[in-house]
Amino acid sequence: MPAEHQHESGPEHLLQLTPDWLQACIQLDQRALGGLWSEQQWASELSDPRRPAVGLEQEGSLIALGCGWLVVDELHITAMAVEPNRRRQGLGRRVLMALLQQGQSQGALHATLEVAAGNQAAIRLYEACGFQTAGVRRAYYRNGDDALIQWMRLHDCEEVRIAAHS
Ligand SMILES: CC(C)(COP(=O)(O)OP(=O)(O)OC[C@H]1O[C@@H](n2cnc3c(N)ncnc32)[C@H](O)[C@@H]1OP(=O)(O)O)[C@@H](O)C(=O)NCCC(=O)NCCS
Q: Which pLDDT value is given to residue 114?
């Protein structure tokens, strides 16, 4: 590989998303999810200890994020987003696994989420990480799409289990 292409960008770092990342989260939400949450929702998301939020930054830019909500012993995955031009590089998987590990370390035994039945990229990612479809909510979304309810037992996932005990 020519030298000028070898170090185009620095390494990606996993981090806990804090209120310092508010504007970066809003912007990535706009680019990847079309604006899922308002600024106020993001602000409360990033300041609530029962709502773990994990990101990947590269040279100061947020390129992926994942958010969850701990309800008793269940981690609800509430948002997953990867920068559009950085997909299929394993970033979504890294963020999701880190979020599951964090949920488990805060006491979650299971994880659950809802995903549009037509969102193949997300469904494949979740299945690759161990989620299984447990039910369907018909016409759940405004455009009439069904929602798949997915679920996993965190202890069943080897990657989560290894990280939790290492
Ligand atoms: C869903 C999303 C987060 C996936 O992120 P990603 O970084 O591209 O995913 P990864 O590269 O980690 O993929 C992990 C695995 O998921 C599956 N996968 C991911 N994207 C896929 C696609 N477009 N088609 C098929 N499989 C896909 C593959 O099995 C992949 O492993 P592989 O690349 O080794 O085959 C990303 O596409 C995204 O931000 N989409 C828009 C927002 C969204 O829909 N979020 C989820 C609903 S809240």
A: 97
pTM: 0.92
Which atom number of ligand 1 is nearest to the Cα of residue 125?
A: 16
**Ligand 1 centre from 80 Cα, in Å?**
10
Domains of the chain: 12-165 (3.40.630.30)
Query: What average pLDDT does the structure give for the chain?
Result: 92
Cβ of residue 138 lying under 6 Å from some atom of ligand 1: no
Cβ of 125 less than 6 Å from ligand 1 = yes
Measure 122 CA to ligand 1 centroid, in angstroms. 5
State CA 33 to chain mean position distance.
12
